Amino acid sequence: MTSRNVGLAILLAACATRITQAAETDLASLTAEMEHRFETRISGGQYMRSSCSPTTTDDWPGVELQRCTYRELNTEATVTLALPSAAQLARWTVSACRDAAATDMRACARHIEKRIWSASNAQFPVRGYVIEPQSVIGGPADRAYCFLFRDGVTVRTAAVTSRPPQGGKCAPQSAENDPITRAFTYGRIASTTRAELALAPGAANESALAGTAFPDAVRKEFVAAWTSDRNRLISGAAIADKANGKFH
User: Fold this and answer.
1) Is-above-0.70 flag for pTM?
2) Which residue, 199, 242, 194, 238, is CA-closest to 216?
3) How many angstroms separate the Cα of 196 from the Cα of each of 53, 112, 115, 218, 233?
4) Residue 92 in contact with residue 233, Cβ under 8 Å?
């Protein structure tokens, strides 16, 4: 190799290094921005985060859980929650946008932020009841409906499905431990469908997520994500939304 070629190779390598460093700086800046945005949202309130105390469960190792009793729409409910921090949410969001190969990372990140907040206020129901207005199933907006959750997914048991409150409470509480007979469509915290999750790098295929296998898969993904920069539930949602033209 001539001295001229050597010099050119050194120059190209230096340029590539600077480009890589600039990209890493941009991602760090975006992650910090998203952390601040999630902090602002969380500080504004998460309606199920009330009268909480730490708890544990064997199938959620290493995840900080809270057992909360809260009131919404004149109804009381109890639920176990995983409440990711703003820093975790920011890292998962930026990683999801990278997995989606977003050309506009900020537009992607803000879209995913809104999707998470609209879907769940960044509250992950491990087990118990989530109160929502009956308007989500076509009823009046000022009346409560109790949705039974297991591992981030609305479920049905042999005895209990989602229902109006009983005597001002979501009940029976025992249903949260009963065997699941049906798992519905969306996994918190981003309302990720089976098809969307299957798009994420390294995720199970859609057939492996069918039926009542879905809550178990969602739980495993969330437990793995707790100490990771990537949450496949969010990555799959981002990949699907980019394909559907919701950002570039």
Assistant:
1) yes
2) 194
3) 33, 14, 14, 12, 8
4) no
Task: Please check whether residue 124 is in contact with residue 154, taking contact to mean a CB–CB distance below 8 angstroms.
Answer: no
Burial class from Cβ neighbours inside 10 Å (0-12, 13-18, 19+) for residue 170 reads buried
> What value does the mean pLDDT take over residues 93-109?
97
Note whether 153 and 171 are within 8 A (CB): no
Element (H, E) at 163: none
Running DSSP on this structure, what letter comes out for residue 237? H
**pLDDT band per the 50, 70, 90 thresholds, residue 10:** low
| Beta strands across the sheet bearing 75-82 | 52-55, 65-72, 75-82, 124-133, 144-150, 153-157, 180-187
SS3 242: helix
- The CA distance from 83 to 62, in Å, is 13
Percentage of residues in the chain having pLDDT higher than 70: 90
Residue among 127, 84, 95 nearest 31 (CA):
95
CA distance 55 to 61: 11
Question: What gap in Å lies between CA 92 and CA 155, rounded to an integer?
Answer: 26
Taking a C-beta distance cutoff of 8 angstroms, is the pair 10, 62 a contact? no
- E-only strand ranges, the chain: 52-55, 65-72, 75-82, 124-133, 144-150, 153-157, 180-187
- Single-letter code of the amino acid located at 186: Y
Q: Give the other-Cβ count within 10 Å of 63's Cβ.
A: 19
